[in-house]
Amino acid sequence: MRPRDRPAPPLRIAGYSSQYSPRLFPEPLFALAEGIFVRRSPRALAAWAAAVVVALVTANVVATDLATLHRRAASLGPRQAAVVAATDLPLGATVRAADLKLVTMYASTIPHGAMQRRSDAVGRVVAVPVLRDAILSTRHLTAARRNGLDGLVPDGSRAVRIPADDGLRPERGDVVDVLVSLDPSLVARAGGGEGSVTIAHAARVLVGDSHGVTLLVTEQEAHAIAFSVANGTLMLALAPPEAACCNRPTSTARGR
Asked: Do residue 161 and residue 217 come from a single domain?
């Protein structure tokens, strides 16, 4: 009998032996099956088992990490918009639209008071310097037009401290006039005139205590007060609220 006419050897699969006819399984297919199921060494089987174990462990780790990320995202809250500085904002700068950008962040990572619309910041003045990519807060900015009672001196004004020696104790927000009584000899040398003049009209009281008051005055009035402190005696006169209306740059200022 020629070798090609001999019957095919039994195919052993996982301990099972069977006689397959070459008519049902051609020799190429039979050889492939024999190479897959029969010619696997213990080392190869161990490698396959290890690969399966690694795949299962990896899938479990990935699934656990994804579940953790989802729980973490849920704890951070919904995503909200926040306004951040597109460039460094120096003290006193007026904010423009090009200075800002809008980003989306988790609600729990956005600080209290953060601005959520660019329109809320445009046109306001930087009260605290802001670095690039920092979140803008309402505490960083102030209104372009303000009366000084919020602790920030308006543009063109000055805050001056005057000792109170005449017994008058105005409170915060009151309106006062500042008068000075000059030395008569000084007035005479200046060519005569009134010895008592008003050097600050309708000044707003920013702070008042037992030692004096801090007033919001114009820059020119600040110079006059400095001269009067050195050459005369100052006195405060309480003025009606109407005195502050419409005749001073800061009297009609309204905060945003």
From this structure: yes
Q: Which value, in Å, is the radius of gyration of the alpha carbons in the chain?
A: 43
Tens of pLDDT, residues 183-200: 777 666 666 566 688 899
Question: Would you state the structure tokens that stand for residue 214, as one six-digit string?
Answer: 């801090």
β-strand partners of 205: 215
166 and 218 co-located in one domain: yes
- Tokens 């309106």 — which residue? 175
Quick one: 135 and 161 in the same domain?
Answer: no
Are 103 and 125 spatial neighbours (Cβ–Cβ below 8 Å)?
no
Range of the domain at 92: 79-142
The tokens describing 200, both together, are 């600050």
Q: What is the count of structural domains for the chain? A: 3
pTM: 0.50
- Alpha-carbon gap, residue 242 to 28, rounded angstroms: 110
What angle (nearest 5°) sits at the alpha carbon of residue 168, between those of residues 217 and 204?
20
